Amino acid sequence: MSEAARFGEIFGHLGFLLTGLLVTLELSAASLVVATLLGMVVGVTRSTKGRWTRVVRLPLSLYVDFFRTTPLLVQLFWIYYVLPVLTGITLNPFDAGVISLGLYEGSYISEIFRGGIAAVDVGQVDAATALGMTPWQVLRRVLLPQAIFMMLPAFGNQFLTLIKDSSLASAISLPELLSQGEALGAMTLYPLEALTVTGVSYMVLTLPLSTVLTLWHRGSLSRGLSQLRRIGGVVETERGMI
Amino acid sequence: MYVWHWGVVWSHLAYLVGGLELTAVITVTSMAIGSALGVGVAGARLSRWWPLRLAVGAYIEFVRGTPFLVQLLWLYYAIPIVTGLNYPSIVAAIAAGSLNIAAYNGELFRAGILAVPSGQQDAALALGMTRWAAFRRVTWPQALRIVLAPLGSTWVGLFKDTSLVSIIAVSELMYRAQTLAINTFRPAELYTAAAVIYFLVTYPQARFLDRTFKRLSVHA
User: Whole-model pTM?
Assistant: First the structure.
């Protein structure tokens, strides 16, 4: 059979891949919400110097360090296979995926928040405090609006990573894009064509966002610096590199 | 309440930790080959000949736009069928790691090279250096220092990502934890042990690289 005919066969089952694409989108969207909320709470808490945060500082830094220095696959397996054994709560693959992706990407996003807040000039906080704002007001009305703007590129990068990382859920048999692609390859006996179309489908998901990120930098920064930031090598914030 | 049976981990600890050997081999080899290829990729992206720029650009976009797992499965399942070549899974793992790192490091090196002020190259050329000498002795050393910190980040990411090659049955740490979990019916103990071992070896690397590179790197 000719190469074109093989691809034709794969495209004949495009609906099968699309159901997987939909699951990947749902998983990514749900995980992004969890990760962003978690990352914001953790990142902001770790940035503040209040007395009550001292109690939670150690557990939070343990959380961030642990989730950033162990593989996502281990965390995913742990939450899918071990958590139910320990707690008696059974999780379906989708929920296990959302929890582990949320926790994993959340630890990275918390560092993005921390870096963004640290990058805001200290004078801004002093000025706001001098105007009589409470710490909460300073955070909400002065720090976060500026920090979030600076965080956007790193945040966009993390979202791209999240979409790609969601493919690991195929290892706990969630029928997302990669699972469907693999199954299609096994079904048609054309794994090359099936996996190529799967790869292109991922690119269709990631390319719009990565293009936006590239254009964003091209407009605002010098060429070399913009390249550095686009690929996530943010040098000037206090983001650790773990 | 779950009753832990850590005995199963202790009795297989040598086997589990032995998996780190392959983890390290894959990380080091992929990083070495990937970085060497990455220099070529960066050069090709900065080339004045547009077809080369375009071709390498497409390669980079594909690698950066698709999950590593897709690339790994592609090299493991698809290429042998098309080419008729038969290679062990460890070769597929290292090939996938190297090609992945080549794209990421290629972009990193290019960014670093572009971040070096062009006056540096002009000055070197004005002193009579050839273009190659100017690159090797003036631009490249500065570019490398600019990208040191993100390079460390790539290393740590790669070290963790090697766990994915367990999916194509390369007997590294994650694969060994998986097979033991299945054979002993003790997933709780074994996956916990795997997580702890990964943490114990990755965290010091990350801290070390972080501190060293912060001292050595320059801010672009």
Answer: 0.89
